[in-house]
Amino acid sequence: MSGEKKLKKARGLRREYRLAATVCVILLFLSLLVLSAVNKIHGQVRIYTSDGVSSLNVRVQHIDLGLNQDFSMPVLKAKYTGITFSSAAKNIPVKASITELSSQEEALSLVEQYSKEDKDIEASVSSIDTTRIGFYAVSMKASYGKKKAMMYLTVDVKDIEPPVISLVSDPEHYTSPVGHYEEEGYTAIDDVDGDITDQVYSEERDGKVYYEVTDSSGNVGRAVRDIIYKDIVAPEISFADGAKGFVNLGDSFDPKAGVSATDDVDGDVTESIQIEGSVDTSKVGICQLVYKAYDKSGNEASLVRQIRVRDPNKADKDPTDKVIYLTFDDGPGKYTQQLLDILDKYNVKVTFFVTNQYSDYTNLIGEEYRRGHTVAIHSYSHVYSKIYASTGAYFDDLNMMAAVCQQQTGVTPSIVRFPGGASNAISKKYCPGIMSQLVQQLPARGYQYCDWNVSSGDAGGRTTPSVIYNNVVEGCSSHSVSVVLQHDVHDFSVDAVEDIIKWGLSEGYTFLPLTDSSKMVHHKVNN
């Protein structure tokens, strides 16, 4: 080859190289332009919670465009620089989380997508069960032309809602200024755990009740109740030992002697006592007084007191030294009419300590009175746990039975017998010391109580008329004045009465009913 040809060939190669170099420069320039354009591919995916305020923000801030090893194929790579959780009040970096989404469809529908320069950034949510706490995948895809980049995030579905404590309030509920709040009620419901009422802790302080409960995810629910204080308890009127319900004919009587009133909030309110009625000691009879006491809140206590005016020349005396007082407790009942007929046959008068246990026979109380027998009070309910719960409970029971007797006979009885007798110890189970208080308070209310000194044994289980007869005869033979305990609700006890009367009359005994002037038998008080 000539030198000229070689020179032309070299010049051609240089032009090709220059052209290739130029092409490379152009390609590099174009790549830079593409990279610049791709770097503008960015956007934000927002997955909103149900309240529409909080959102999960994921930013794709950088996409790299590179070349394969053979410099022929560009490669699109995507990165994300961070995740933030934002709300109206704060912007705090946390783990990605979606809460309060009720379904997969709702999660997808709440995805808001947008981009700049018409470059798409897409997001999808897959396999999220928002009813179950756990971790789920969120995929994100960035596109430029036909090139795509994929990124995956982990979404934590968690319970962030605290339980709700709902308080029950009674508009008529009040707390004593000196007492403690009595709970009206509440419920605690959690959107995940359900009813967790039994896990609520409450504390009373500073005139309020504070409630708190924690669900299984550690969310704490709280509530506060303002305590409404109001004094709604009336004072209590009481009589000191020695304040009797009896006065002798012609004697003076001070209705305020031994009477006091106390209030749980105001203390001693004796000065507030007002008395309605008067006592005429010029004649034998029953006088009624009404005592009323008031506290500073206007609560009123009212108590009816009977004062019996009696002739001292007739009191506490028995006509003979051989007297039998037959007494019958717990009726009237199924066998009371049979007993009344037996007593009429021998013109014997007895004492019935009546109850209201058998309402079908209540009318026989009036019949007992009309036939000349003494009607005395035993108990309205005869339920020990009720009548011996407190002195107030006892007198409530007594007053109810007195009202029944008044309705049946027109007269309020003056004699009572404690269920179980004054010596009973079972009352200690319900109110220690109650019997000691009752034997002191009863006379101040115009009543006498009477126990017994002869027991028929008819309350001790199954027995026979002959056993009852023998028990009574043996007991009466040991006393000049006998108060016999029987029960007219037992047929075997009623069946023994006729033989007891025959024996007593043949032995010179007088059968009498108890009256105000009778000498009362008292047991030793054991409570």
Number of structurally distinct domains = 4
Find the count of extended strands (DSSP E, 2+ residues): 31
Named at the architecture level, the CATH assignment of the largest domain is: Alpha-Beta Barrel
Oligomer state equals: single chain
Mean pLDDT: 76
Number of helical elements: 10
In CATH, the topology of the largest domain is named TIM Barrel
Strand content: 25-35%
Question: Biggest β-sheet: count, sense, barrel?
Answer: 6 strands, parallel
Distance between the termini: 146 Å
Rg of Cα set: 49 Å
Question: What is the topology?
Answer:
Blueprint: H1 3-38, E1 43-48, E2 55-60, E3 62-67, E4 74-79, E5 82-86, E6 91-92, H2 104-109, E7 111-115, E8 121-125, E9 134-144, E10 147-157, E11 164-167, E12 186-190, E13 194-195, E14 201-205, E15 208-214, E16 220-226, E17 236-239, E18 246-248, E19 259-263, E20 267-268, E21 274-276, E22 285-294, E23 300-310, E24 323-329, H3 336-346, E25 351-355, H4 364-370, E26 374-379, H5 384-387, H6 391-409, E27 415-416, H7 434-444, E28 448-449, E29 454-455, H8 465-476, E30 481-487, H9 491-494, H10 497-506, E31 510-511
Helix pairs in contact: 4-6, 8-10
Short structural description:
Helix content is 23%, strand content 31%. By secondary structure, it is α+β, with helices and mostly antiparallel strands. It folds into four domains: 39-146, no CATH class; 164-226, Immunoglobulin-like; 236-310, Immunoglobulin-like (Sandwich); 323-511, TIM Barrel, CATH 3.20.20.
Question: What report would you give on this structure?
Answer:
This protein is of the alpha+beta class and 527 residues long. It folds into four domains: 39-146, no CATH class; 164-226, Immunoglobulin-like, CATH 2.60.40; 236-310, Sandwich (Immunoglobulin-like); 323-511, Alpha-Beta Barrel (TIM Barrel), CATH 3.20.20.370. The protein contains ten helices and 31 strands. Strands 24, 25, 26, 29, 30 and 31 form a six-stranded parallel sheet that branches. The longest helix has 36 residues, at 3-38. It is elongated and about 165 Å long.
